[in-house]
Amino acid sequence: MVLFKVKKNSIKIDEVEVIKQTESSIWVNNWKGEPRRELKSTNYADYFDTWEFAKNHIVNREKRRLEWAKESLKRAEDDYRKSLELSLSGSEV
Fold first, then answer.
1. Using one digit for the tens of pLDDT, what is the confidence trace for 67-91?
2. Domain assignment of residue 21, given as a range
3. Number of domains the chain contains
4. For tag attachment on the chain, is the N or C end more exposed, with fewer CB atoms within 10 Å?
């Protein structure tokens, strides 16, 4: 059976041949051809049953990253404007 792997900081979807799976784990052959267990979801990668689920995961993740970046940019712009309004009045030099 094939699952689709998405690494955390990647937009690439890899097909992975899976020997066995449970609700939380999969087994794949390592480079020696020996079975190796992996979790379906880790800090490194997630596995999905279909390519479409994997794609939707990437689209939603990147949408969240874009929203966070916009919010961060807005805060930085606000702080920049405030810094331009700073004056020396009332402060010791």
1. 999 999 999 999 999 888 886 655 5
2. 2-84
3. 1
4. C
